[in-house]
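step: validate -> pass
step: tokenize input -> pass
step: predict -> running
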Amino acid sequence: MNEDRIKGQWKQLAGKLKEKWGKLTDDDLKVAEGNSEYLTGKIQERYGVAQDEAKRQIQEFDKTL
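step: predict -> pass
step: emit ->
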């Protein structure tokens, strides 16, 4: 995930992230602000998946952008 690109387009991406991972809160996304490690951890926490699976999901999501 390209951190600079994510940070630059965060508001637009936050809406798309909410569509994909509806269990993420606005506060989660506000704190994440493009930090893929934090986002990975929140996806793990909210969805009960392993770290590798959360990273894979984020990578797949990134390919759709």
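step: describe -> The domain at 3-63 is CATH 1.10.1470.10 (Protein Yjbj; Chain: A;).
step: cleanup -> pass
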